[in-house]
Every structure is written in C-alpha cells, then in structure tokens.
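Notes to self after the Tuesday call (sharing in case useful).
The group wants a holo model before anyone commits to mutagenesis around the pocket. I volunteered. Ligand is pantoate. Logging inputs and output together so the record is complete.
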Amino acid sequence: MLPIVRTPQALTEAMEAWKRAGHRVAFVPTMGALHAGHLALVTEGLKRADKVAASIFVNPKQFGPTEDLDRYPRDEAGDAEKLRAAGCELLYAPSVATMYPPGFASYVRVAALPDLLCGAARPGHFDGVATVVSKLLAAARADVAVFGEKDWQQLAIIRRMVADLDLGTQVVGAAIVRDSDGLALSSRNLYLTADERARAVALPEALARACQTLRAGGDVAPALAAAERGIAAAGYARIDYFELVDGERLTPLRAVTPGARLMAAAVMGSTRLIDNLAV
Ligand code: PAF
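Result:
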C-alpha cells in the first residue's frame, strides 16, 4: 500500500528524510481522479529524481461558485493504487481544514497572466491555483515538481510564481497525453456523454489543422476563424477562446514566433474542455 501523509509537517519530514539519504526528490501535485496523463507526470518525475511523491487535494479555492467542486470525482484508494503502480512512493492527501484552517487569509496572485485566456471565464481560478501550489511546494521542498502541459496557462503561471518567489523547486512540464482519437485526457472527460465524447474530438482536430496551416506559412486570422467554424460545426455549445499566443507571456500573436502556441477552450454539453499545441 502507498504510504499516505495528511499534514504539511509530515510531508516535509518524509521529503527531507529522502534528501538526507542522498535522494533527489520529485513532487506531482494533482486533484485526483487520476488518468494516464497524471501517471505520465509520475513517470516524468522518475526520469528526473530517485523518489516521487504526489498530492491529491481537490482545492476549493480554484473552483468558482457555479463550478463542479461538489461533483468533482473522488476516489482516494483507487488513485493511491494507481500512483503506487506507477512508481510513486508517497501520497500527501490533506483535508480542506488542514490546508485552509479557520482564519486562513493569505493568497498568492501572479500579475496579468491569470486574467488572460481561461482567466476571463474563470475569475479567481488561477489565484486559487497559485495559492495552493505555493503551499504544496513550500511543504514538499522537492527538487523538481511536474505539471501537465494540457493546463499550459497554469504551467506558465506556476513557472512565473516559482521564479518570482524563489521557491527553489524546478518546474517541469510533461507532454499532453491523448486518447487514440486525439482528445487530451482530462478528469472532466468523465462528464461527457458518449455522443459528446465522440464530437469532442473536433477540438484537437481544429488545433492540428490550424497548426498545419500556420506551419505552412498561412495567415493567422483565417486559420483561427476556420478552426472556430470546425469546432462550432461539431456542436460545441460555446468557444471561450481559440488563440495563437506567446507561450510564456500568453499574449496574442498575429504571426508565428518562436515558442508560439495555439490555445483553445470550448464547452461541449456542459463540460468545458481545454487543449493546446506548440506551433
Ligand atoms: O492541475 C491540477 O490538477 C491542479 O490545478 C493543481 C496544480 C493540482 C492545483 O490544485
């Protein structure tokens, strides 16, 4: 069975004991509902360190009042077994009361980046992410922390925060893991009906087509417009954004530059899906 600790002090002690024994340690923060994409983060951690610890904490501070906090899938025992099988050796699973005891009043906010892209549809979301990730990294004191590239905006914000606050952990992005038809794995894919799941593939298809057009020297605006038409035609209820951005600053681009990234978010049924692709 995977050892589980539930307080920041216990996590720090376990990580420091590994380091005293001469190990390099990696940390993989998650909200559970683990799929192959999360397990790839553990694999990435094992490439860069001797020991991997993961956390499962469904962070209430990153959910808006109308979002899916209550129905977010939870299966700690099942997730712990998946982590163990992937090579993770420790799970940090604190309660909400441990993370945010009465009187909790401190927030971490990265300037500008959280207001762009997903931030427009999810006000406060990235402040919740930055706050919880800073707490997790402060307790873990890992050499390396691994995050998925599917949440590219989150990764950019965390990189900025860790650099600005000298948190001393190297932030590593792991490539998106996709289903055989190309849909990016996400815990929220579980909410899709079979019909929605079949139509959802229009999002990665639109990204791939736009990417091809741009790599072939096509103009940005028509490529983005064609992509949006494809997504709408598949029955997505809403497109929050489909943009070409600078991969670090996340600002919109009118032409492809080094590090440019296509970023997309759209709602299928009642499920909001995000995806991105390097151009
Ligand atoms: O990507 C996630 O699962 C979450 O946003 C994270 C980084 C674990 C913070 O709650």
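Two things stood out.
The mean pLDDT is 97.
The pocket of pantoate is lined by residues 29-31, 59, 62, 129, 132-133, 151, 154 (CB under 6 Å).
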